[in-house]
């Protein structure tokens, strides 16, 4: 199948219209329309619903989209291999992991710590948990790092680290100087979460369920940075992995509250697509570097023994 047809299809799917896709691809609109008709003729089914407001995917088109993206990525990998270029590795991460931990791991890969042949041109996408998971399912990312929520994701995956879970607040918060806090002392105060299904919400829901069963939650949509700034200004408490607040704790912008019953650690997981060709060597080197950078290696050792 001509990859030009697939490229036109993916562009229309992403931009929502044939005109916008033609502009992005540098073709006449009639040329893109013809390519799409040839694609549908080869497949024997319609992949787009065309209308005055644009174009949307049919059920067949929705099933085709991840495979079309995979085919285009394979073409890109073949090009790079033929030219002797380094393989490309498209990585996605939650903001809470990209805030402090992941940059060090990626820097180690770039400096050659993964060994000979592990170099790669890394493209990093940082977004909410839901968005990187969707991009991974759609074939837009090769590898994603996230905090484990207990949800099952098909395909290769591994635990690469563990992190402490902390309750943090501003240094001038009324609870900041308390020696040991009980749930009853926490309940009158707001808990800040970055957005539904993101790391902080997941930790409240799953790891702090007993501790925070009746807590008041304030959602700060889409931004860990905004949440940390608000917490630093005294607008609420936040239950977060240590890596996402390490800088703020070191600078004194936030302080850790001492809980009578600490919340258990959370796992850092990696999920990747198989059959990545030349990118597999740097991918597995990166996974090994991530394991070496485990924020709580003792937890991993206990899990391995158990």
Shape verdict: globular
CATH architecture of the largest domain: 3-Layer(aba) Sandwich
How much of the residues is beta strand, in percent? 15-25%
Q: Give the overall pLDDT as a whole number.
A: 85
Strand order of the largest sheet: 4-3-5-12-6
**Rg estimate, integer Å:** 23 Å
Low-confidence regions: none
Total of domains: 3
* CATH topology tier name of the largest domain: D-Maltodextrin-Binding Protein, domain 2
Distance between the termini: 50 Å
Largest sheet: 5 strands, mixed
Structural class: alpha/beta
Strand count: 12
**CATH top level label of the largest domain:** Alpha Beta
At the fourth level of CATH, the homologous superfamily of the largest domain is: Periplasmic binding protein-like II
Count every helix, treating DSSP H or I runs of 4 or more residues as helices: 13
H/E element string?
HHHEEHEHHEHEEEHEHEHEHEEHH
List keywords for this structure.
alpha/beta, D-Maltodextrin-Binding Protein, domain 2, 20% strand, 3 domains, 13 helices, 306 residues, single chain
Word description of this protein:
This protein has 306 residues and is an alpha/beta fold. It has three domains: 3-82, Winged helix-like DNA-binding domain superfamily/Winged helix DNA-binding domain (Arc Repressor Mutant, subunit A), CATH 1.10.10.10; 86-161 and 266-305, Periplasmic binding protein-like II (D-Maltodextrin-Binding Protein, domain 2, 3-Layer(aba) Sandwich), CATH 3.40.190.10; 165-256, Periplasmic binding protein-like II (D-Maltodextrin-Binding Protein, domain 2, 3-Layer(aba) Sandwich). Helix content is 45%, strand content 20%. It has 13 helices and twelve strands. It has a five-stranded mixed β-sheet with strand order 4-3-5-12-6. It has a three-stranded antiparallel β-sheet with strand order 10-7-11. It has a two-stranded antiparallel sheet with strand order 1-2. A hairpin with a 2-residue loop joins strand 1 (48-51) and strand 2 (54-57). Helix 1 crosses helix 3, helix 2 (18-25) packs across helix 3 (29-43) and helix 6 (101-110) crosses helix 12. It starts with a helix and ends with a helix. The mean pLDDT is 85.
């Amino acid at each position: 199948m001509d990859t030009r047809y697939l490229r036109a299809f993916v562009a229309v799917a992403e931009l929502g219209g044939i005109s916008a896709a033609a502009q992005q691809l540098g073709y006449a609109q009639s040329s893109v329309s013809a390519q799409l008709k040839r694609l549908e003729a080869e497949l024997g089914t319609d992949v787009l619903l065309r209308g005055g407001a644009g174009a949307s995917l049919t059920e067949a088109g929705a099933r085709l989209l991840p495979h079309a993206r995979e085919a285009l990525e394979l073409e890109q990998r073949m090009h790079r291999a033929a030219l002797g270029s380094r393989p490309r590795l498209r990585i996605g991460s939650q903001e809470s992991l990209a805030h402090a931990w992941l940059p060090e791991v990626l820097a180690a890969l770039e400096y050659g710590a993964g060994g000979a042949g592990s170099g790669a041109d890394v493209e990093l996408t940082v977004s909410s948990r839901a968005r990187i998971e969707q991009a991974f399912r759609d074939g837009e990312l090769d590898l994603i790092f996230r905090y484990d929520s207990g949800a099952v994701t098909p395909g290769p995956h591994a635990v690469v680290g563990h992190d402490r879970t902390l309750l943090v607040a501003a240094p001038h918060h009324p609870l900041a100087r308390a020696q040991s806090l009980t749930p009853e002392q926490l309940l009158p105060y707001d808990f800040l979460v970055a957005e539904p299904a993101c790391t902080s919400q997941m930790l409240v829901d799953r790891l702090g369920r007993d501790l925070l069963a009746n807590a008041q939650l304030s959602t700060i949509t889409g931004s860990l940075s905004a949440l940390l700034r608000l917490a630093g200004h005294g607008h609420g408490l936040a239950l977060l992995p240590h890596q996402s607040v390490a800088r703020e704790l070191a600078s004194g912008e936030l302080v850790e509250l001492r809980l009578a019953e600490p919340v258990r650690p959370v796992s850092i997981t990696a999920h990747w697509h198989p059959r990545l060709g030349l990118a597999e060597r740097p991918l597995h080197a990166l996974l090994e570097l991530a394991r070496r950078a485990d924020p709580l290696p003792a937890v991993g050792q206990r899990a391995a023994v158990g």
